[in-house]
Predict the structure of ABC transporter ATP-binding protein.
Amino acid sequence: MKVELRGVRKVFGDTKALDGVDVHFEENKFYGLLGKNGAGKTTLMQLLAGHTLPTAGEVLLDGEAPFNNRDALKRVCLINESSNFKRRLKVKDVLKIASLFYPNWSRETAEYLMEKFNLKPGMSTRGLSKGMESALGIIIGLSARADVTIFDEPYIGLDASARYMFYDLLLEEFEEHPRTFILSTHLIDEVSRLFEEVVVLKEGEVLFQETAELMIEKSLKVSGTKEKVDAFTKGKTVIEESEMMGMKSALVYGEVLQLEDAKAFGLEAERSSMQTLMVHLTDQKEEKYA
Ligand SMILES: Nc1ncnc2c1ncn2[C@@H]1O[C@H](COP(=O)(O)OP(=O)(O)OP(=O)(O)O)[C@@H](O)[C@H]1O
């Protein structure tokens, strides 16, 4: 399923949640949707899932708007931060309802994941802990096998080992039953190995859309004497630097840079993590590194 937003604006009162967003998501690719708090990630995902209408512009799933479009919505599954199952239902009833809505629903996957997350069919949704609620959301998201599967920080309350199990399950599902995954998270380094492509939002706009590999190859953290670091970084875009007693380190971003080039300068050099890059790129006042 081809997914795109064209010139999308979404305004809430005086707040521009999205402001002229053009972005596309290809079939069967794994995307990270990143940005600081309030950047517009949830708004974008809700537009894709047809939960709301854009103020201007178009949201298109295979050329059709998802809002009020039952056929399109059956092919998209959005799992939120905490799905908040407010009604008094049993876990098995929630799964039954989901299975009736999503045409590609996999009962085997649901059963397998229930075991993995230790959820029992007879449990009442009211009595679930935050982590169990998140697990139930994840079970629905993966068992639905929707062409476009979107997770908006779905791990609230899950401990580290359950989160890593979730990432492994995502990878397993992606390999065995490819579909488009869009995952929004602030725990970037935990999951960045899964991303093929990254869409970064900043203040309601797309800062960039890039392959994860290229994003990392465009970063270089160098350290050494101030003199050598300054000589190496001259003419390059430094997004973060620090100095102490004549020694300096700098994070450079923007063009594909080789570790060997920095080492030939007598510097220590390494790639940045995606999380560190995101912190500095989205904190920049001007987008001078594009
Ligand atoms: N229903 C709403 N009513 C009013 N303002 C809203 C509403 N939904 C979102 N906003 C505002 O739109 C902006 C973007 O919010 P959004 O939730 O999309 O950001 P986000 O990137 O998902 O943030 P976070 O990482 O904190 O979840 C914020 O300023 C937010 O306050």
